[in-house]
Write a structure and sequence with these properties.
Elements (H helix, E strand, L loop, with lengths): L1 E7 L5 H11 L5 E5 L12 H4 L12 H12 L4 E7 L4 E9 L4 E5 L7 H4 L4 E5 L3 H16 L3 H20 L8 E3 L6 H18 L1
Parallel strand pairs: 1-5, 1-6, 2-5, 6-7
Antiparallel strand pairs: 3-4
Length: 205
């Protein structure tokens, strides 16, 4: 199993890069895990407190569970990926069964900040994008998917997204084997990444 970590700031285009990797490989060959599924369950807190959680800080994540799940998949075992709701800031009782495949992709803003997790990746990728472009995507996504107002999105961006990006996410770029500038729009970088993946798959088989 080839394990790939795809990091980058909020709204950098990670999902687009993941989709293009999947499209470049044979159908059914890729399993994808999202860091967002592994935010700690905060159902013990009142809703107002939950909505104040800093999702851009490493402490918000259950890294031990991510590490355990990747190790299980590497052993050939299926895992139960949690389902996390940004609307309620809690985990659902249901889970998603993920089966081991030839390629496992974990994507998320903070995945390169954790050494034990980092050490599990065969290929580490950082998707880079202009801060203004990222902010535009964050505004559009948070309004549509997370029910937030523009004012709330901008407040959160200034209060936590931007400072956490500078403190944790941007410095983690130095651990990447490959940096993809211009996010999901960089066809050349994505083609290079896909060819590296295919080459690694051949050597593993």
């Amino acid at each position: 199993m080839l394990v790939i970590g795809i990091a980058g700031g909020t709204g950098s285009g990670k999902t687009t890069v993941v989709r293009k990797i999947i499209e470049s490989l044979p159908e059914g060959e890729v399993a994808v895990l999202s860091q967002d599924s592994y935010y700690k369950d905060n159902s013990h807190l009142p809703l107002e407190k939950r909505q104040e959680i800093n999702f851009d800080h490493p402490k918000a994540l259950e890294f031990d569970l991510i590490v355990e799940h990747i190790k299980e998949l590497r052993k050939g075992n299926s895992i139960e990926e949690p389902i996390y709701s940004y609307l309620t800031c809690t985990r659902a009782k249901e889970t998603v069964t993920v089966y081991p495949k030839d390629v496992l992709i974990l994507e998320g803003i903070l995945i390169l900040t954790h050494k034990e997790l980092r050490d599990l990746f065969d290929i580490k990728v950082f998707v880079d994008a202009d801060p203004d472009d990222r902010l535009n995507r964050v505004i559009q996504r948070d309004i549509v998917e997370r029910g937030r107002s523009v004012a709330k999105v901008l407040e959160r961006y200034d209060k936590s997204v931007k400072p956490m990006h500078l403190q944790f996410i941007e410095p983690s770029k130095r651990y990447a084997d490959l940096i993809v500038p211009q996010g999901g729009h960089n066809k050349v970088a994505i083609e290079v990444l896909c060819s590296i993946i295919e080459k690694n798959l051949k050597t593993q088989k």
